[in-house]
Write a structure and sequence with these properties.
The chain is α/β, with parallel strands linked by helices. It folds into two domains: 210 residues, Isopropylmalate Dehydrogenase; 137 residues, Isopropylmalate Dehydrogenase (3-Layer(aba) Sandwich), CATH 3.40.718. The chain has twelve helices and 14 strands. Strand 11 and strand 12 form a beta hairpin.
């Protein structure tokens, strides 16, 4: 297979981890007889520095013309003022909207070698294998917002807005995934308080009727947050709104012991998809060769699976990560006594060396 992949190194430590993911994909191409062509583009703070825009039109054009997009993360301290007219995060939101990737897939699977990296008791999390499907291009982050004066006092508002169609399409993604997994969908909302959530629950319940072989339940977001910590193994596929998903997936990342272990992908009705680690740009660690590239490497595996439909190749990357951990190598975020500390580049080398087409 020949494929064109756009890389968006982004800000902070992101170019470092993206480089390691590319290294691993190059090894996959060699092992399985593929040809991957890479084209780099600007986004976030790096794009603002170069062009004054967080998402240049050229970047979006390149992404839409590709077979898959691999993103690092955006964010830089010099753009940390929330009142700044142009901020790195605006580029990410615009990219998701422009690519039409409305379903964010965030798998949470605990490697047995990292049971003790989490602060949660091993017996609670040892069987965790769940997927959170987060709606990505609507809701509170894209609704109408503004400021106004009310009786002389300053007020601000943000609007959580969804259409039934927006809810239906992301819920169907969740059900399709569950049909290939353990056959259970949990829809998360706040229908006891929010009218928006009532529409969400009504729509999800209606869609569930089309999937009689998949178990379905609705759950309030506060209950879901508690059960993620106390009974995480009961979840298979969770589907929820943009904001709820943003919060719940960061919570779920602590089950795995580090945000440096968790990938994500964003897909829409058409290809290409957008794939990125769930962690941020961590500018304070830039250039130190200390951050964990595994989340970005596993995001590359998701790109192979969901955009290029290369299941064996994706599995090869996941197997290689498993072997590296089994062999006792760790970056500092997941290190424990008796393991060998390695840096960002070394971890990438170790994973690449273990890629096999067997």
């Amino acid at each position: 297979m020949e494929a064109k992949i756009v890389t968006l190194p982004g800000d902070g430590i992101s170019p470092e981890v993206v480089a390691e993911a590319v290294k691993v994909m190059d090894r996959v191409a060699e092992a399985f007889g593929h040809s991957f062509e890479y084209e780099e583009a600007l986004i976030g703070g790096a794009a603002i520095d170069a062009t004054g825009e967080a998402l240049p039109a050229e970047t979006l054009e390149k992404c839409l013309a590709s077979d898959g997009v691999l993103l690092g993360a955006v964010g830089d301290w010099k753009y940390s003022d929330p009142k700044a007219p142009v901020r790195p995060e605006q580029g990410l939101l615009a990219l998701r909207k422009g690519m039409g990737v409305f379903a964010n897939l965030r798998p949470v699977k605990l490697y047995k070698e990292l049971l003790h990296a989490s602060t949660i008791k091993p017996e609670v999390i040892e069987n965790v294998d769940l997927m959170v499907v987060r709606e990505l291009t609507g809701g509170l982050y894209f609704g109408k917002r503004g400021r106004e004066k009310v009786d002389g006092d300053e007020a601000a508002y943000d609007t959580m807005y969804y259409t039934a169609r927006e809810v239906e399409r992301v819920v169907r993604v969740a059900f399709d995934l569950a049909g290939k997994r353990r056959g259970k969908v949990t829809s998360v909302d706040k229908a006891n308080v929010l009218e928006n959530s009532r529409l969400w629950r009504e729509t999800a319940t209606r869609v569930a009727e089309d999937y009689p072989n998949v178990e379905f339940e609705s759950m309030y977001v506060d209950i879901a947050a508690m059960r993620l910590i106390r009974y995480p193994e009961v979840f298979d596929v969770m589907v929820t709104t943009n904001m709820f998903g943003d919060i719940l997936t960061d919570e779920a990342s602590m089950i795995a012991g580090s945000m440096g272990m968790l990938p994500s992908g964003a897909i829409g009705e058409k290809k290409p998809g957008l794939f990125e680690p769930i962690h941020g740009s961590a500018p304070k660690y830039k250039g130190q060769n200390v951050v964990n590239p595994i989340a970005t490497i596993l995001s590359a595996a998701m790109l192979l699976r969901h955009s290029l439909e290369l299941e064996k190749e994706a599995q090869a990357i996941e197997n290689a990560v498993q072997k590296v951990l089994s062999d006792g190598f760790r970056t500092r975020d997941i290190r424990e006594e008796g393991t060998e500390l390695v840096g960002t580049k070394e971890m990438g080398d170790l994973v690449a060396e273990r890629i096999s087409n067997a």
